[in-house]
C-alpha cells in the first residue's frame, strides 16, 4: 500500500514538473527567438545604411580619380571600401568591361547596389562607368552566431532556474500538501467511518477544499451511522422473522404430525369404504397443507439467503419412476397422455441434491398436469455432455396446455406471481416456480420457458452433476458386500444397467444374464467353483418363462447348494405372496425402488447366507426390525401415541419419556437400541439431554440418537448434530422415515458380529 502511494505521488510530481518544464522552455525559447530575430533585422538595417552611405561619401571621389586617371588613388579607394565589414563585393565596370573587381561574388540573398560613376565639370557630366557593391551579410552572420551561442546559454540557465523555482513552488504549495492529504483520504476509524481531512498549516489556499471535503465527510458519517442503525434493525427483524418462522413451523408441524400420523394409522385399521374415503381425504388435505408450509419455509430461506444444497447419491432413473408413480394416475383422471423418457446412456449413480431436484420436477410436472385439459404431458431427461467424472443433463417438461403469453413469461418466475389463468389463484401460493428457479440457480442452471398461447409450454433447465464413485455401504455392511458374487437375470437392458451400477457401487461382483435359459448353467458352473453365487436377482416377467418358474427350477435342481433368490418387479402384486413362499424367494421388491430398500434386502439375505463372516440373526421375526427396544422422548401426548403406534407396527418395543430428564433417567437404568429425541421440551430439552448422554457414555456403548423435531431449518439440523445427535427427522413423521432411521443406525440390533476364537 505504501509503495502504491509513493508511486502515485511520484507520478503526480513528474507529470506536473514535465508539463511546467515544457511550458517554461517553450516560452523562453519563443522569447529568445524573437530577440534574435529583432537583432538580425537591426543588423540588416545597419548593413543597408552602410552601403547607402558609400554612395554619398565615396562615389564622387572615385569618379574624380578615374577622370584624372589617378590609378594609385583609385586603387587605394577601392581597397578601403572592400575592407569595410559590411561590403563583401565591389566591381567597377564600363562599356568596355570590368576594370576592377574585389571580394566574393554576391549570393542570391545578398544586398546589392549599383551607381553610375559621373564626373561633373563646368556644368557638364561625363559618364565614366558603374560602381556595383554587395553584402553577403558575412559580418552579420558572424555576429549573430556569437549572439545565438550566448542566447542559448542564457536560455538554458534561465530554464534551469525556472525549473528549480517551479520544483520548489510545486513541492511546497502542491505535491507536499497533496501527499499529506492523500494519507488522510480513504482512512477509516474504529467505527468503520471515514476520517476528517486536515490540510497543512499556513496553506490558506487549501482551506476551502478542507471545508468542503469535511462537510461531505460529515454527511457521509451521518449517513453511515443511519445505515448502521438500519442494518442492526434489519438484522434484528430478520432474526425475529427467522425465530417466528421456526416457532410457526414447530407449532404447526406438531399438530400436523398428529393429524397425518393418526390418518396413516387409521388407514391400517378395518374401515368401510366411506370411512376409508374420509381418511384418505384427511391425509391428502393434511399433506397439501404440509406442502404449503414447506413452500413458505423454503421462501423464508431464500429471502435470508440460507437455502443450501446437500449433495448426496442421486439416481435419475429412480427420480423418473417417482414422477411416473405420482402423476400417471392424476393424468389418467384428466384423460391426458403422460410419459417420462430418460436417456438410457445416463450414468445411474450421480452426486446431487435428490430431494431438491425432485421438488423442482414435481412442481413443474404438477403445474403441467394442473393446467393442461387435453393432450399430453411429457417429461424428459437427456444427456448434454459427459466427461470421466461429471455429466450435464437437461430436464424438460412439455405440455399441450393453454400456454403463457410472452409478456408474462418472465413474470411467472417472480414470488407470489402466477399466470392469468382463472384457476391459478385458487390452486397455489405462487411460490412454486420462484422456489424452483432459486434451487436450479444453486445447482448452476436456470429454468427457461418456451411457450405459445394455445399450443402449450416447455420448461427446461440444464445442470452439471458429478459421477458417484464412492461405495454406498457402511463399514460393517462392506464386509457383506465385498466381492460378493451375484447373478442378475433380467431381459431389460435399462433395468440391468441401473441395478448393476448399484450393486457394483456396493462392492459386489455382478454377472448379467439376459436369457433365463442360460441362468441354470451359470449357477451350476459357479457352484463347483471357489466363488459360487450368493444371490440370484430375478425379474418377475421375462419372455418364455417368468421369475417364479425359474426360482422353482433353481431350488429343485440345486437344493441346499442353491444361492439366495431375490425378485425385482415393475408389477408388484399382493397375490404373489403364496408364490414367493413356494418358490423360496427370500426378497421381493417392486420397481421403482429406493436404493436403500435394495441394500436393506440384500443385507438381510447376506446375513443369513454368510455365517463365515460371524454374522447371525438374533431374531426369527418376519420383520427385520422386530425385537428392537427404542426410547421415544416426546412431551406431546398425541405425538407420543402416534410415534409409539408406528414403531409398534414395525415390531419395535417402545418406552416413552416426557422430557429430557426422564429420558436420561431411563437411559441410565437400561440400554436402548436407539433414542428418538424431541428437541423442545419442558424440564430439559433434547439438546441438553443428548449432551448429557454423550458425556456419560463410552465409545463401546454408544446409543444412536435421532432428532424428532418440528423445526425444519438448516440451523436446527446443525444444532442437533452439534448436540451429539446422529440424525434428524422433521415432523410430521412417517412410518417409513422411522423404519429408515432404524435400519440405518441399528445394524447391531438385528445382527451381532461374533468374535472368532
UniProtKB/TrEMBL annotation:
What residue stretches are annotated with the Histidine kinase domain? Answer: 247-467
Q: Which residues carry this modification: 4-aspartylphosphate?
A: 539, 678
Domain Response regulatory residue range list = 485-606, 629-746
| SMART domains associated with the record | HATPase_c, HisKA, REC
- SUPFAM superfamilies, alphabetized: ATPase domain of HSP90 chaperone/DNA topoisomerase II/histidine kinase, CheY-like, Homodimeric domain of signal transducing histidine kinase
Query: What keywords are annotated for this sequence in UniProt?
Result: Membrane, Phosphoprotein, Plasmid, Transmembrane, Transmembrane helix, Two-component regulatory system
List where the protein spans the membrane.
Answer: 12-38, 148-170
User: Which reaction is recorded as catalysed by this protein?
Assistant: ATP + protein L-histidine = ADP + protein N-phospho-L-histidine
The protein's superkingdom reads Bacteria
The record's listing under PROSITE patterns reads: HIS_KIN, RESPONSE_REGULATORY
**Which Pfam families would you find in this protein's record?**
CHASE5, HATPase_c, HisKA, Response_reg
User: What's its EC?
Assistant: 2.7.13.3
According to UniProt, the name of this protein is histidine kinase
